[in-house]
Specification:
Elements (H helix, E strand, L loop, with lengths): L2 H19 L6 H8 L3 H7 L3 H27 L3 H18 L3 H6 L3 H13 L1 H13 L9 H17 L8 H16 L2 H10 L6
Length: about 200
């Protein structure tokens, strides 16, 4: 098998394993065994687990960007449909993540900083999204959306620093903050249409 295909298989398997078990619980030996490749081959492609984890994060970010482009294309400019698809994806993703992953990522501060920079780079896109949503009658025009963006960042930081994911299921944190704030931002007509398109079930 071509080295590039083996590399992709490793990244895809490791990404799923990290999400399901955390980073510390996943051993390089178990990855090579699960994929039927030698440890020598694995270490020739990735020097260590941190390098592999970084590549998993990079690919996940690229995959997310590609998915967002597809969601926008499928919605034909209807931002409410975009929101429905994004929320569905987030819920599905949250349900797949073992909270141990959040703890383990703290052991890799440089990778965490990289992820934060990536999120900060999206601020302009998010502001444009809100602005277009106001034009489409989805979001209220009386809200300071830059403040909302900052509030979401602080909320995410609080979850990490206070380790709220250990005290509450991530789906509860999502439903009790993200969805509550969202419902306060959208217009009444948009909220009715949103509920018709997507009935979020709290688990």
């Amino acid at each position: 098998m071509e080295r590039s295909k083996i590399r992709l298989q490793i990244i895809e398997y490791a990404t799923s394993a990290f999400m399901a078990n955390g980073v510390k619980a996943v051993k390089m030996d178990s990855i090579s065994s699960a994929l039927g490749i030698s440890k020598r081959t694995l270490y020739e492609i990735f020097d260590n687990k941190e390098v592999l984890l970084e590549e998993c994060i990079v690919k996940s970010q690229h995959d997310y960007d590609a998915m967002m482009q597809q969601i926008y294309a499928d919605a034909n400019g209807d931002l409410l449909k975009v929101l429905v698809s994004i929320f569905k994806f987030q819920v599905e993703r949250i349900m797949k993540i073992n909270p141990a992953l959040y703890d383990d990522l703290l052991l890799y501060p440089e990778l965490v900083k990289r992820m934060e920079r990536s999120r900060n780079d999206n601020d302009a896109k998010i502001r444009n999204f809100f602005s277009e949503g106001v034009k489409q009658g989805i979001f209220r025009d009386t809200v300071n959306y830059q403040l909302i963006i900052e509030s979401f960042k602080n909320h995410s930081a609080a979850i990490a620093s206070q380790k709220l994911y250990k005290r509450y299921p991530m789906i509860d944190l999502f439903n009790s903050f993200t969805m509550v704030v969202f419902r306060g931002l959208v217009t009444e007509s948009a909220l009715k249409r949103f509920e018709a398109l997507y009935n979020l079930q709290v688990r």
